[in-house]
């Protein structure tokens, strides 16, 4: 490890903020409001990988924000063979985004690791999520105060893994790549993106998926104490 690290950059969704748990709660709320009788476990079984696929396409600028929000729902309803109108899909996509940041489940160890790091490092966020939504997630989870800067892809004009978003974040944080490290769950966007931009990186590998031996990784956030 680089002993000169002064600034630690975190991804938000799937790294600190428990996206899948909060997403499920948001869908339960919205479906109940609209009186949709769905097998939630079956719906989520299809939605979770579809959402990841749509986010990857969005990250690569293959689809727009609107296409992401509509398509991931439409495709899931089609796969579970639940008939919904286009107007209802549009409504559900809006309501889901409204309720999603209201839930505030964090990964186990989030608060403890932030408390551990904050006295010794400047902490920051770099996220591909939408500005207003991510701000609400941070505020409702009561963790905004830990971070000196928050960079999102709307501000930077590009998304991770584009090196320009890391340059933007470093400039906003008033630090250098040599003194910085990125922590996130996505090997392509967070880890390889940071490494290509000249930062060190650690993968938050909660599901213990196989990665190359040269990639630093943790399976639990508190394991970051081994590195920082």
UniProtKB/TrEMBL annotation:
Quote the InterPro entries the UniProt record gives: HAD-like_sf, HAD-SF_hydro_IA, HAD-SF_hydro_IA_YjjG/PynA, HAD_2, HAD_sf, PGP-like_dom2, Pyrimidine_5'-ntase_YjjG
Q: Which Gene3D superfamilies match?
A: HAD superfamily/HAD-like (3.40.50.1000), Putative phosphatase, domain 2 (1.10.150.240)
Q: Which GO terms describe its molecular function?
A: 5'-nucleotidase activity
SUPFAM superfamilies according to UniProt = HAD-like (SSF56784)
Stored NCBIfam families = HAD-SF-IA-v1, YjjG_YfnB
Which protein, by its recorded name, is this? Noncanonical pyrimidine nucleotidase, YjjG family
């Amino acid at each position: 490890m680089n002993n000169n690290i002064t600034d630690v950059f975190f991804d938000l969704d799937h790294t600190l903020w428990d996206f899948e748990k909060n997403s499920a709660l948001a869908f339960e709320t919205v479906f109940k409001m609209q009186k949709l009788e769905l097998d939630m476990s079956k719906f989520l079984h299809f939605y979770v990988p579809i959402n990841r696929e749509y986010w990857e396409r969005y990250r690569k600028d293959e689809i727009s924000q609107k296409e992401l929000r509509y398509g991931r729902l439409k495709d899931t309803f089609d796969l579970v063979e639940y008939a919904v109108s286009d107007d209802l899909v549009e409504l559900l996509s809006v309501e889901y985004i409204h309720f999603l940041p209201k839930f505030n489940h964090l990964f186990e160890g989030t608060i403890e690791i932030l408390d551990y790091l904050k006295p010794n490092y400047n902490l920051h966020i770099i996220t591909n999520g939408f500005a207003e939504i991510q701000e609400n997630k941070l505020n409702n989870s009561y963790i905004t105060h830990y971070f000196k800067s928050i960079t999102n892809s709307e501000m930077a004009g590009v998304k991770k893994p584009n090196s320009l978003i890391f340059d933007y974040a470093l400039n906003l944080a008033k630090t250098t790549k040599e003194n910085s490290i990125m922590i996130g769950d996505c090997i392509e966007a967070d880890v390889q993106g940071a490494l290509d931009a000249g930062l060190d990186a650690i993968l938050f590998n909660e599901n213990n998926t196989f990665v190359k031996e040269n990639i630093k990784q943790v399976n639990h956030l508190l394991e970051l104490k081994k590195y920082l």
